Amino acid sequence: METKNDYALRTDLYQLSMMQTYVNRGLQDKKVVFDMFFRKIPFGNGYAVYAGLENIIKYVTGIEFKDDDLAYLGSLGFNDKFLDTLKNFSFSGNMYSMDEGEIIFPNEPILTIEARIIEALLIETSILNIFNHETLIATKASRIKEVTRENQVVEFGARRGHGLNASLYGTRATYIGGFDGTSLVEAGRRFKIPVMGTMSHAFIQSFDDELEAFRAYAEENKDNVILLVDTYNTLRSGIPNAIRVAKELEEKGDRVKGIRLDSGDLAYLSKEARKMLDNEGLNYIKIVASSDLDENVIADLKLQGAKIDVYAVGTRVITAYDQPALGGIYKLVEVIEDGVRIPKIKVSDNLDKILNPGRKKVYRIINNKTGKAEADYIAKYQETLPTVGKKLLLFDPISPWKKKIVGEYRAIELQKEVLRNGQRCGPYTGVEQARRRCQVSLELLWEEHRRRINPQTYYVDLSEELWHLKKDMIEEKRSHYNDG
């Protein structure tokens, strides 16, 4: 049973204004379908990583209007009839979603809500907030992990996050995206993420000299001795003192786990540090690097032959430094009247902003010969798609003359029912499960879709039935509003 939360008013004013209009006109029980999706992959990447589903479920199932919430809304001018409706409000609709950690692409429904109009409207702001934030961070983390590959990468960014919750749930998203641990203790406790850490410059400065600081830390933290070596002079002081402490620990049967470089020429310093450590028989000591790292800096370090074992990434992942927003969308695509489903469409001069109408299913098409994903395929909900065997026509929905026929394939339906009548109907998705989903889904992509710079476009295609429905609805709407 989900616990109630204090998030009822975390919605935009116009949602409540529209909700009151429906209530006053007796339309509050109108059934609708909304799709949540995004239009453009962030960071110039070839894919995005879906994160935030568990947070969305907890929010949606925990909404409750308390007395002080209702009093405040009354002070804004909302009427008693509407406030009485909110007193017993709870989400009673259905939610369909891709798995958290799934690899996702533009213009496909990631999450679908089927509910009363007032329920669907109320939750829009917060579920987009969660989706946009956590998916953005998970995608950035995956980009970084794609570069570090066999090297560990740890999130060190809590102090730079945009608020306490942003840091906490951002850390969770980095782990889903492929990071190996975090420095944030609460994230370790709450989400069972491995916790890692070193020491600060202030710790070293607080002692009379660097060697004394290293010895004190090593004595009190025998299982986690990672020494920060750049406070004064990395090669002349920090590493020699780290070597001295490492030798002293060896005599006691203990070991220094690593050293950390936090400034200077990381490529040069890491290579020199590796030589110095290896010359003393300390090849087991790992070299950790921090200092405003991201996928581009790390790629350059690797090209320069840097001898770095663990990358500690902070600001540039937890803030999604080079792109501040994902731009997720939540749009009405269907109205249900007397059991009849009526598809809806938004028409725009911008082709990218024209909606795919109606309730839909999304499939990932896997070529049986290669084992790789060919495209994602969106079909009308009522369509029956052969999931194995028969040939399938794929075509670009914007440029339909670009066609491809896939022979032996299997189709994986991506959305699952996660809430039925407001109640969870699937198992809890833990962060480890979401992380594995991300890794498995990435393996289905060609390397060309995964590359950091100028990735090959992964296509999201429409079925012929959906394409014709969309085309006919566009023509009907343009004809209707252009008459006269």
Overall mean confidence score, pLDDT: 94
CATH topology of the largest domain: nicotinate phosphoribosyltransferase
- CATH H level of the largest domain: which superfamily? nicotinate phosphoribosyltransferase
Separation of the first and last Cα atoms: 57 Å
Unreliable sequence segments: none
Percent in strands: 15-25%
How many beta strands in the DSSP annotation? 21
Q: Sum up the overall morphology in one term.
A: globular
The computed structural class is: alpha/beta
Any idea how many domains?
2
According to CATH, what is the class of the largest domain? Answer: Alpha Beta
Q: DSSP helix count?
A: 17
Could you give the order of strands across the largest sheet? 13-12-1-5-3-19-20
Describe the main β-sheet briefly.
Answer: 7 strands, antiparallel
Question: Into which percent range does the helicity of residues fall?
Answer: 25-40%
CATH-scheme architecture of the largest domain: Alpha-Beta Barrel
Rg computed from alpha carbons, rounded to a whole number of angstroms = 27 Å
